[in-house]
């Protein structure tokens, strides 16, 4: 499945959330990551994040798509990051 | 499915915050480690042991290529599906001549039938290939009769030579003429494409072998020796016509690859940076393409087909089900 993750967390935990998310998803821009992910890894990612965020203060949102066939991605301005397999 | 990552640039690859970090001239790029199945390294990359340990833990293979796009070698992490039983079975089938030729014959049969299928496809599109097809049909039955690996390889070689000769008829582009098969280094553009495509397919197959119990060092058609992996060469034979050759016809037919994608080097002609990047992208798209699988009744990608071929081989070796090569029907 394809997932878009956005987060808004206390400054103290921003780096921690980013660090965990980067193991599974491609960084797109500040507080946004995306990528193809397996069910199991999706669960692992959520579990790891739950462990460090403060649920009364922080917010992490996942948008999941079964396929990306019916969605489009359009960007304006510079491209900061995103998925790629050729570097 | 996890991705293959290709690194064409120079830089440093290291473990950082428990994932992979690629440091290039234009900054740091993080690669999600959980989404990587293998790394293909073309650029000048600095790595350290800490990274190799991390990759071993994550079961990621590294394939290295040199400056001329030749395969150099792989970092093949400690096998995670280590099975003494399978190695013994593989060796048993390698050592007994009648068992070995049975498997080798299956590889050649698969390769020849798939070559035929490609030719039939273009014949139906009005290319003059009747002669080549006749020649192959005449030679093909001999595959079932031969009793030595050498004879088998000779027949395969003859068929493949004739088949490559037909490339000019299929492509029909004066920029991409075949002349003759030349390797190390390739002498013209078309040979460069064939060599590079085959190299990629060999490593892809090797990566898939890593995910099974099979030992890549024991091949059946290609003789095992002291250096090379050979099982991946065997299995790749079946898929060369339907993956690599079709990709080449596609690229030349659509005029996507041009003369300026090549450069002269080392007394031969090889793909340059932009040509390499283009070819890799198209190759990746190709092996990710799914087809309807008749027996399974669902869609599978070409990459998965390679893996399934290996599972079939495993079943043959343990005596569960006779191995039959994959045959393209389109």
From TrEMBL, chain A:
GO biological process, one term: maintenance of CRISPR repeat elements
Lineage summary: Bacteria, Bacillati, Bacillota, Clostridia, Neomoorellales
Domain of life: Bacteria
Family: Belongs to the CRISPR-associated endoribonuclease Cas2 protein family.
Gene3D superfamilies named among the record's database cross-references: 3.30.70.240
Membrane spanning stretches: none
EC numbers: 3.1.-.-
Name by which UniProt lists this protein: CRISPR-associated endoribonuclease Cas2
GO molecular function: hydrolase activity; metal ion binding; RNA endonuclease activity
PANTHER family: CRISPR-ASSOCIATED ENDORIBONUCLEASE CAS2
Subunit annotation: Homodimer, forms a heterotetramer with a Cas1 homodimer.
Function text: CRISPR (clustered regularly interspaced short palindromic repeat), is an adaptive immune system that provides protection against mobile genetic elements (viruses, transposable elements and conjugative plasmids). CRISPR clusters contain sequences complementary to antecedent mobile elements and target invading nucleic acids. CRISPR clusters are transcribed and processed into CRISPR RNA (crRNA). Functions as a ssRNA-specific endoribonuclease. Involved in the integration of spacer DNA into the CRISPR cassette.
HAMAP family: Cas2
EC supergroup of this enzyme: hydrolase
InterPro entries: CRISPR_associated_Cas2, Virulence_VapD/CRISPR_Cas2
NCBIfam families (UniProt xref): cas2
Positions annotated to bind Mg(2+): 8
The entry's keywords: Antiviral defense, Endonuclease, Hydrolase, Magnesium, Metal-binding, Nuclease
Cofactor: Mg(2+)
TrEMBL record, chain B:
GO molecular function, a single term: metal ion binding
Keyword Nuclease among UniProt keywords: yes
CDD domains: Cas1_I-B
UniProt-listed Enzyme Commission number(s): 3.1.-.-
Binding site for Mn(2+): 156, 222, 237
TM segment ranges: none
Cofactor(s) in the UniProt record: Mg(2+); Mn(2+)
Tagged with keyword Transmembrane: no
Keyword annotations of the record: Antiviral defense, DNA-binding, Endonuclease, Hydrolase, Magnesium, Manganese, Metal-binding, Nuclease
GO biological-process terms attached to the record: defense response to virus; maintenance of CRISPR repeat elements
InterPro entries the UniProt entry points to: CRISPR-assoc_Cas1, CRISPR-assoc_Cas1_C, CRISPR-assoc_Cas1_HMARI/TNEAP, CRISPR-assoc_Cas1_N
Subunit structure comment from the entry: Homodimer, forms a heterotetramer with a Cas2 homodimer.
Family per record: Belongs to the CRISPR-associated endonuclease Cas1 family.
General function of this protein: CRISPR (clustered regularly interspaced short palindromic repeat), is an adaptive immune system that provides protection against mobile genetic elements (viruses, transposable elements and conjugative plasmids). CRISPR clusters contain spacers, sequences complementary to antecedent mobile elements, and target invading nucleic acids. CRISPR clusters are transcribed and processed into CRISPR RNA (crRNA). Acts as a dsDNA endonuclease. Involved in the integration of spacer DNA into the CRISPR cassette.
HAMAP family: Cas1
Annotated protein name in UniProt: CRISPR-associated endonuclease Cas1
Organism name: Neomoorella humiferrea
Gene: cas1
């Amino acid at each position: 499945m394809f997932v878009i993750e956005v987060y808004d967390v206390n400054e103290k935990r921003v780096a921690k959330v980013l660090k965990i998310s980067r193991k599974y998803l491609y960084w797109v821009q500040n507080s946004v990551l995306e990528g193809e992910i397996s069910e199991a890894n999706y669960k692992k990612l959520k579990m790891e994040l739950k462990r460090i965020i403060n649920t009364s203060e922080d917010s992490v949102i996942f948008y999941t798509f079964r396929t990306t066939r019916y969605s489009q991605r359009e960007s304006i301005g510079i491209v900061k990051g995103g998925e790629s397999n050729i570097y | 499915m996890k991705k293959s990552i290709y690194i064409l640039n120079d830089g440093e690859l290291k473990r950082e915050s428990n994932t992979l970090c690629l440091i290039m001239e234009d900054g740091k790029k993080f690669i999600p480690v959980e989404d990587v199945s293998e790394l293909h390294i073309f650029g000048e990359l600095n790595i350290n042991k800490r990274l190799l340990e991390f990759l071993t833990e994550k079961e990621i293979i590294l394939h290295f290529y040199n400056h001329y796009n030749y395969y150099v070698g792989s970092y093949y992490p400690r096998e995670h599906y280590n099975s003494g039983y399978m190695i013994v079975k593989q060796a048993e089938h390698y050592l007994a001549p009648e068992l070995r030729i049975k498997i080798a014959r299956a590889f050649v049969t698969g390769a020849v039938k798939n070559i035929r299928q490609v030719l039939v496809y273009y014949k139906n599109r009005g290319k003059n290939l009747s002669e080549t097809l006749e020649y192959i049909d005449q030679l093909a039955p001999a595959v079932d009769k031969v009793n030595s690996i050498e004879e088998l390889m000779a027949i395969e070689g003859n068929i493949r030579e004739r088949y490559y000769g037909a490339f000019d008829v299929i492509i029909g582009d004066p920029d991409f003429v075949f002349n003759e098969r030349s390797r190390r280094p390739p002498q013209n553009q078309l040979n460069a494409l064939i060599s590079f495509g085959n190299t990629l397919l060999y490593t892809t197959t090797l990566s898939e072998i890593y995910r099974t119990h099979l030992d890549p060092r024991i091949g059946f058609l290609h003789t095992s020796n002291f250096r090379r992996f050979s099982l991946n060469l065997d299995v790749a034979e079946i898929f060369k016509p339907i993956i690599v050759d079709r990709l080449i016809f596609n690229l030349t037919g659509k005029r996507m690859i041009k003369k300026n994608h090549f450069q002269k080097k080392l007394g031969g002609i090889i793909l340059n940076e932009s040509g390499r990047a283009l070819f890799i992208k198209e190759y990746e798209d190709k092996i990710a393409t799914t087809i309807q699988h008749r027996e399974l009744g669902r869609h599978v990608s070409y990459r998965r087909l390679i893996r399934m071929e290996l599972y079939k081989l495993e079943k043959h070796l343990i005596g569960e089900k006779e191995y039959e090569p994959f045959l393209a029907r389109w």
